[in-house]
Amino acid sequence: MKNTVNTFREAKQKGIKLAMLTAYDYSTAKLEDEAGINGILVGDSLGNVVLGYEDTISVTMEDMIHHGAAVARGAKDSLVVVDMPFMSYQTSVYDAVVNAGRLMKEGRANAVKLEGGKEVSAQIKAITEAGIPVMAHIGLTPQSINAFGGYKVQGKSEEAAKKLLEDALAIEEAGAFSVVLECVPAKLAKLVSEKLSIPTIGIGAGAGCDGQILVYQDMLGMFSDYTPKFVKRFAEVGQVMKGAFADYIKEVQDGSYPAPEHTFKIDDDVLEKLY
Ligand code: KIV
Q1: Which of 41, 64, 219 is the pocket-test mutation for ligand 1 (most atoms within 8 Å of CB)?
Q2: Residue ranges per domain, the chain?
Q3: Is the per-residue pLDDT at 69 higher than 90?
Q4: Which residues line ligand 1 (CB under 6 A)?
Q5: CATH number listed for the domain at residues 5-236
Q6: Using one digit for the tens of pLDDT, what is the confidence trace for 87-122?
Q7: Distance between terminal CA atoms of the chain?
Q8: Catalytic member of 32, 182, 251, 272
Q9: What is the pTM of this model?
Q10: What are the tens digits of pLDDT across the range 205-230?
Q11: Which amino acid residue places its CA nearest to atom 3 of ligand 1?
Q12: What is the pLDDT of residue 150?
């Protein structure tokens, strides 16, 4: 059964936890979908884990459309959410609706995600009213890394915690169907989750959220540039890949690969005519 925004709403009402992962290509999306993931985020973390940038700032609309469409082709039952890249929605409500529309039309998104609280509530309202579901994202919002001055836990002071809660309520009021809480103290995330009627999806925000999301390369041990505290490695796929690459190199070099069972035959009399 296809996960929709209604699945997300009902899960919150019934207290069923939602599981999300990122994906950026067809074959990974297909594997996650077949495993039964509720939602796949084509995150702008694409910039870090796929394109090798040091942050998400340089990711473009064309990048998100290209990878969104690939993921959508692999995701049968999962809800596909595509990130709105930096400066595709902050500039104006008009830009936000046009770009969200492109992510849905060309990137085949079922929903879009954008970063920010009250300051983008007009964008959330307009995109939602255009028939495009919006997942919001507050707490540590990586597109604002230069304003934050680094990747830090958010909402720790009384003032910051109050602002986070106000942002969450403004997002819900504006019509978002869900909100990501990134790098927020667990008790604050639990309180926000209790105050909202839309599901919270946590990343570094504790078990009190209504769902969780991780970058798939992090949870599979495939990305080692840095590992945030909240990441649990569910497998060491990076090690398995390196081992397989090394075995392949060795077998190519010693001539044991390809073996006869990996090759195609030709009749000897055909070949003889070439001599
Ligand atoms: O871009 C991304 O992968 C994200 C998740 C970390 C929530 O926004």
Answers
A1: 41
A2: 5-236, 240-272
A3: yes
A4: 22, 41, 43-45, 83, 137, 180, 182, 203, 213, 215
A5: 3.20.20.60
A6: 999 999 999 999 999 999 999 999 999 999 999 999
A7: 60
A8: 182
A9: 0.97
A10: 999 999 999 999 999 999 988 889 99
A11: 43
A12: 87
Nearest CA to ligand 1 atom 1: 43
Interval between CA 238 and ligand 1 midpoint (Å): 20
In the numeric block, the tokens 């915690």 are attached to 161
Assess whether 182 carries a catalytic annotation: yes
Question: Over the chain, what is the mean pLDDT?
Answer: 97
Cα 257 to averaged position of ligand 1 atoms, centre (Å): 40
Query: Which atom of ligand 1 approaches the CA of 201 most closely?
Result: 7
Task: Please state the φ and ψ torsions of residue 260, each to the nearest 5 degrees.
Answer: -50, -35
Q: Helices 26-35 and 61-74: crossing angle, nearest 10°?
A: 50
